[in-house]
Specification:
133 residues, alpha+beta, two-stranded antiparallel ribbon
């Protein structure tokens, strides 16, 4: 559980009258439309956890350095956590796609990395003015 302290109007560590407001940062999911890969997928989407803890993110980055079938079978649990799916389903997808469409799984992995990177890079352009006022 990740917890930070905040005032109601600002998201930073603040004590107000010896009272601290605490809240849990929820898992944030975004969707990858599989129709971006091929229109035949229709409305199928892949849920991606875009704010995983740094430890899990570093494990994912290690996986990205060398994506092989052996490595994926060992790291299926990590991928499953990011996709909110059990490791068995990840391996099922790897096996199915390796026979029918080998590029599909790699595309899904790279899109997953991209959507996490995009989410972590989001900062409002005028955020400093907002907090200073």
């Amino acid at each position: 559980m990740v917890v930070i302290a905040a005032r109601k109007s600002h998201m930073w560590r603040v004590k107000k009258r010896k009272r601290v407001y605490l809240f849990e940062i929820p898992k944030i999911f975004e969707e990858i439309k599989m129709s971006d890969y091929a229109p035949e997928f229709g409305e199928v989407v892949l849920k991606v956890w875009v704010n995983p803890p740094m430890k899990l993110l570093s494990e994912i980055n290690e996986l990205a350095k060398e994506i092989t079938a052996e490595r994926i079978s060992k790291e299926a649990e990590i991928i499953g956590k990011i996709w909110d799916e059990p490791a068995e389903k990840v391996m099922e997808l790897v096996e199915q796609s390796s026979e029918t469409d080998p590029r599909l799984f790699l595309w899904m992995i790279f899109r997953t990395f991209k959507i996490i990177q995009d989410h972590r890079g989001l900062v409002k352009k005028n955020w400093t003015q907002e907090f200073l006022s």
